TrEMBL record:
This is Polysaccharide biosynthesis domain-containing protein. It is found in: Golgi apparatus membrane. Coiled coil: none annotated. GO terms for biological process: xylan biosynthetic process. Residues 299-319 are annotated as: Disordered. NCBIfam families: A_thal_3515. Residues 302-312 have a biased composition (Polar residues). Its main location: Golgi. Pfam families: IRX15_IRX15L_GXM. It is a single-pass membrane protein.
Amino acid sequence: MKSHGSRDKLQATASSSQRRVLLLVFVSCFALATFLTFIYNTYHFASASASASASASVSASGSAASAGAGSVLPLPVFDALVHYASTSNATHRMTDTDIRAISAVLRDRGPGNLLVFGLGAESPLWLALNHGGRTVFLDENEFYVKYLEPRHPGLEAYDVSYTTKVRDFHDLVDAARASRAAECRPVQNLLFSECRLAINDLPNELYDVAWDIILIDGPSGWNPTSPGRMPSIFTTAVLARTGATAAKGPTDVLVHDFQFEVEQVLSKEFLCDENRVAGSGTPSLAHFVIRGGGPRDAFCSGQDSTAATSRTPQDKTGK
């Protein structure tokens, strides 16, 4: 009896061991299958995500390209904006002829990079007419900049701290002439300029923009203590001859309020009569086309660094 019982125990033990082995094999196979499934799904999920991202990028690029291609303002819309702006009753606005003359240049050259010195009643018009390009405004009045920006979405404006005075403009021009081969030279990096007429405190990236058109309609020159447009005209003359602006080709420069002495003297000195577009503009608007490069010590042909400015007084009232 004892022998028979021992045999039964051995058989039970062997059967239990087989079940453990089978269970272990099953668990191992299940774990391996789960692991392989995880690897497979991870790989295909990553591939699908990458494909989707690539498709989205291509789609976005295509959309952006389509948007860019159709971003030019339609001519009837352009003309309608000019018409209503030139016939408006807004106070302190430009004359009809000035608005149309500036708009004609924007139509010919735009959309592009437009730099405007001064904020005024026409600022939303210039922004709209240059639709598809970049328009930047510079103004002496920090509060006016902050007032207009939220009221005109897309308007990019910066305030400028001018240190010049209209009453000093003759002395400033004489000093610039005397240092035309040094601090006030025609081709230079304005960021590091020590010329008293240079504007060197703008956001740095603005000096690297290739400006197609520059409109000078500021700062103010109402009275002897106003900053006057000496710095904006000089800075424009240097920008047009230097860096990215010079590299991209000629720059159209428009000087408003050209009937006044400061604008005439400074334009003659730095923008040059030989660069003025004949038959363009109006009595109160001058149009220049400035090309890059040129002599290192002269803005205009035949300039003499020892020449003195004319000191004929002229009334600035009404500007």
